[in-house]
Write a structure and sequence with these properties.
Homodecamer; pentamer of dimers. The chain is an alpha/beta fold and 265 residues long. It folds into two domains: 229 residues, Phosphoenolpyruvate-binding domains (TIM Barrel); 28 residues. 43% of the residues lie in helices and 14% in strands. An eight-stranded parallel barrel has the order 1-2-3-4-5-6-7-8, surrounded by seven helices. The longest helix is centred in the C-terminal third of the chain and has 18 residues. It starts with 5 loop residues before the first helix and ends in a 10-residue tail after the last helix. Bound molecules: 3-methyl-2-oxobutanoic acid and sodium ion (NA). Sodium ion (NA) binds next to loops.
Length: 265
C-alpha cells in the first residue's frame, strides 16, 4: 500500500481533492479506519476527554500521548499519522517543544506533530520543523486554551480576532507547516483562509470550503451520544449497538443460554 505523505496532501489541495482525517487513540480502531482509507489519522489530545474521561484536554501527559500514538502506529499501513503535543509540553520554550516532538517521533514512530496557536508559539514551531519533524498547525477554538476563552462558542466572529487568525495562518505557512486545522470558526473566514494560503486547511466546525475535514471518531460513530454540537454529523449509532449487544449478552449469561454446547470444550 502506498503511504500518504505531506507531498501528497499538498497535491490533493492543488487538484481540489478533499482530505479526510479522523482521530484514533488505540490499535483496534486505528486498524479499522486505516483500512477504510482515511488520509490522516490524528492521535488527538481529545484522548483526554474520550479515553480518560477528563473534562478538558489539559490533563493528558506526554507519556500518555506517546502510549496512544505507539498503539495507533502499530496498526497503520497507509494513513499519515499526526500526534498532538499536549498542553504544557511545548508552550514554555522552543527547546521544550523540540524535546517533546523528538520523544513523540522516536518513542511512537509517528509521522508528524500538531501544536495549537500562531505567533505565540512561532519559535517552537520553527525549532521543531528545523529538526525535520513535519508540523500541523491548529487555529480557532484551540481547546488547550479553553480557560482563556471561557466558552466552547465559535471563535473569530469579530474582525480583530479574524484578522489575527488570518495573519497566524499565513505565519504558519511561512514557517513551513504542512497543514492547519481550523476549529469552530465561521465558514466564510475558513473559506478566506483556505484561499489565501497554499497549504491545506482541515476544518472541524469550519464549513465546507476547507481543504479537508476532521472529526473525533467516537463522536461521529455515536459512541458518545450526549455530545451533539451543530458541526457534528453522526454516521453511526454505535452507542446503541454496544448497549444492546451487552444487554443481550447479560441476558444470555443470566438465562444460561450462553455458552451452549458448540461454544464449550
Ligand atoms: O484532539 C483532537 O481531537 C483535535 C481535533 C478535534 C482537531 O485536535
Ligand atoms: Na487536539
Amino acid at each position: 500500500i502506498k503511504k500518504v505523505t505531506t507531498h501528497q496532501l499538498q497535491a490533493m489541495k492543488e487538484r481540489g481533492e478533499k482530505i479526510s482525517m479522523l482521530t484514533a487513540y488505540d490499535f483496534s480502531m486505528a486498524k479499522l479506519i486505516d483500512a477504510a482509507g482515511v488520509d490522516i489519522i490524528l492521535v488527538g489530545d481529545s484522548a483526554s476527554n474520550v479515553m480518560a474521561g477528563h473534562e478538558t484536554t489539559l490533563p493528558i501527559t506526554l507519556d500518555q500521548m506517546i502510549y496512544h500514538a505507539s498503539s495507533v502506529i502499530r496498526a497503520v499501513s497507509r494513513a499519515f499519522v499526526v500526534v498532538d503535543i499536549p498542553f504544557g509540553s511545548y508552550q514554555g520554550n522552543s527547546s521544550e517543544a523540540l524535546r517533546s516532538a523528538i520523544r513523540i517521533m522516536k518513542e511512537s514512530g509517528a509521522h508528524s506533530v500538531k501544536m495549537e496557536g500562531g505567533a505565540e508559539i512561532k519559535e517552537s514551531i520553527v525549532r521543531v520543523l528545523s529538526a525535520g519533524v513535519p508540523v500541523m498547525g491548529h487555529l480557532g477554538l484551540t481547546p488547550q486554551s479553553i480557560y482563556k476563552f471561557g466558552t466552547y462558542a465559535v471563535r473569530a466572529k469579530e474582525e480583530e480576532e479574524a484578522e489575527k487568525l488570518i495573519a497566524d495562518a499565513k505565519l504558519l505557512e511561512e514557517c513551513g507547516c504542512y497543514a492547519i486545522v481550523l476549529e469552530k470558526i465561521p465558514a466564510e473566514l475558513a473559506r478566506k483562509v483556505s484561499q489565501e494560503i497554499n497549504i491545506p486547511t482541515i476544518g472541524i466546525g469550519a464549513g465546507p470550503d476547507c481543504d479537508g475535514q476532521v472529526l473525533v471518531m467516537h463522536d461521529m460513530l455515536g459512541i458518545n451520544a450526549e455530545f451533539k454540537p451543530r458541526f457534528l454529523r453522526q454516521y453511526a449509532d454505535l452507542g446503541t449497538v454496544i448497549t444492546n449487544a451487552v444487554g443481550h449478552y447479560i441476558k444470555d449469561v443470566k438465562s444460561g443460554d450462553f455458552p451452549n454446547e458448540k461454544e464449550s470444550y
